[in-house]
Amino acid sequence: MKHLDVAAIKDGSVIDHIDSKSTLKVAEILNIQNEEQIVLVGMNLTSKFLGKKGIIKIEGKIIDQKEANKIALIAPNATVNIIKDYEVVKKFKIVIPEIIEGIVKCFNPNCVSNYNNIKARQHVVNKNPIKLQCHYCERIMSAKDIVLI
Amino acid sequence: MNFKQRDIISIRHFNKEELLYILDLAKRMEQMEYTDILKGKVLALLFFEPSTRTRLSFESAMKRLGGMVIGFAEPGVTSVAKGESLSDSVKIIEGYCDIIVLRHYLEGSAQLAADVVKTPVINAGDGANQHPTQTFLDLYTIQKTKGTLEGLTIGFLGDLKYGRTVHSLAYALAYFGAEMYFVSPPSLRMPGDFMEALKDRKVKCHENESLMGISKRLDVIYCTRIQKERFADPVEFEKVRGIYRLSKAVLEEFGIKNDLKVLHPLPRVDEMDDSLDATDFAVYFHQARNGVPIRKALLAAVLGAIE
Ligand SMILES: [Zn+2]
Prior knowledge:
The complex is a heterodimer of chains A (149) and B (307).
Chain A lengths: L11 E8 L3 H7 L9 E9 L3 E9 L5 H10 L4 E6 L2 E7 L5 E3 L2 E2 L15 E7 L2 E5 L5 E3 L4 E2 L1
Antiparallel strand pairs in A: 1-3, 1-4, 2-3, 4-5, 6-8, 7-11, 8-9, 9-10
Chain B lengths: L15 H17 L9 E6 L4 H13 L3 E5 L13 H8 L5 E6 L4 H8 L4 E6 L5 H15 L6 E5 L6 H10 L5 E5 L8 H9 L3 E5 L11 E4 L10 H7 L7 H7 L6 E3 L20 H6 L1 H12 L5
Parallel strand pairs in B: 1-2, 1-3, 3-4, 5-6, 5-8, 6-7, 8-9
Helix pairs in contact in B: 1-5, 1-11, 2-11, 3-4, 5-6, 5-11
The structure holds zinc ion.
């Protein structure tokens, strides 16, 4: 994966194969507005798999598991490339975990997880389309209900 | 069957064999009446939301098995009123008892309690979510009065949108090949995700606005109250209040099976007329009494006093 659509970065992360419409949401998850080094965000790029895709490159940042889990909820087809000295040193397809903790707020206002500083927790009951069941109140959320913490 | 130390949180956590096992145990409990199998055991009844009947039926069940009961009937008298978290409250009370029965207005509170204490927790109602012991007693009543749970045709009537008893019972009856008719005004239909879940489980479901034309097929009518407090707009409530009013005359006019049974979790307001009470159709008072053997069965099984 030497060919990059936008300018290359030296060290950092490239999140590729984002469903184009979700690109800015992924950017939000990664909190890019607070990055100090180069950030490149591309949308509507040509993709063999998705037709159109988004891509985000962040200089000096290594995506961690928790961030990858969050991205998985919004952009299930995304891949993460970790770059060192212009080379891809690690490449992984992100996967939706079985249980999601402390990432998605339960959409039920009467759910106990919205009180008393309890960590929200959902079981992934379906991956595509995404369906999350609250561990506490048992309500099922789909993509439209997902609000990240 | 292993119920020892198990939490009773949601009807979804039990398979068909486990449901039948508890019903069978309840039957045995009904035959033995007073025993001492829970002598020396302490049940803590934590009612953060008042519900006199559920509380008294747990208390009766525990005492009939020789156990003791501590607890409170409303949170105003506890540290919760001073801002203590639910997790802290149950962690402290855990040290005083062998089993906790919790009723709380927040959905998921029983699961939270079960996650933070080692003592088994029985959910006695968490908001609009679950009330599994009610579902067990509903199943027990149907089984007792119809002789079986298999292959019945059940009509659910009233507030199907907010009625948690309907949601859980429908879920449980799906194990027994039931065909279900959901009868409600359009504004109080079964939530879409429940209908989907039932269809996924191959349940034959129908939605209707009246009993007209379907009443002859029903083995059981499960009637629920339309609760005023669920409506943000009083005008909307006025539109649906009293929309269903079951009476002996109405049932006879619609045409029903002779052995139809009418259940209701009670209390009722005006959705069921007194004229039904003396008929063989009415089993709701009997249903309420079944709360005791069911709760005896669950307490005894969870505390490991019976196999
Ligand atoms: Zn919840």
